Amino acid sequence: MRNLAREGMTMIVVTHEMQFAREVADRVCFLHSGQIVEQGAAAQVLLRPQEARTQDFLRRVLGNDETSLCVQCREAV
């Protein structure tokens, strides 16, 4: 899937694997109970989530350490 993403393939992927999402996604959506609670450019949402649910999820998955965020995301914002 990473190779297909690098080649420009359009995909819709449902995942809890944030490392994978950070590597390949241009846009992300966060859902809760089947409803989109936040969506936007991957770098923007992953680095500066606006919604409490997104913030809580990312804090739990990535931790509070800013260094856990990918360089590509930091450069894109």
Can you describe what's shown?
There is one protein chain. The model has no long low-confidence stretch (mean pLDDT 82). The chain is α+β, with helices and mostly antiparallel strands and 77 residues long. A two-stranded antiparallel sheet has the order 1-2. It has one domain (2-76). Helices cover 45% and strands 17% of the residues. Strand 1 (27-32) and strand 2 form a beta hairpin.
Q: TL;DR?
A:
The chain has 77 residues and is α+β, with helices and mostly antiparallel strands. Helices cover 45% and strands 17% of the residues.
Unreliable runs, pLDDT <50, ≥5 residues? none
What is the element string, with H for helices and E for strands? HHEEHHH
Give the termini separation: 24 Å
For the record, the count of structural domains works out to 1
Number of helices: 5
* Helix-residue proportion: 40-55%
How does the major sheet shape up?
A: 2 strands, antiparallel
The number of strands is 2
Instruction: Determine the strand fraction and express it as a percent band.
Output: 15-25%
Mean pLDDT value:
82
What does the radius of gyration come to? Answer: 12 Å
Structural class: alpha+beta
Query: Taking strands numbered 1, 2, ... along the chain, how are they ordered across the largest sheet?
Result: 1-2
Give the overall form: globular
Strand-helix topology:
Blueprint: H1 2-6, H2 18-24, E1 27-32, E2 35-41, H3 42-47, H4 52-62, H5 71-76
Antiparallel strand pairs: 1-2
Features:
single chain, 77 residues, alpha+beta, two-stranded antiparallel ribbon, 5 helices, 2 strands, globular
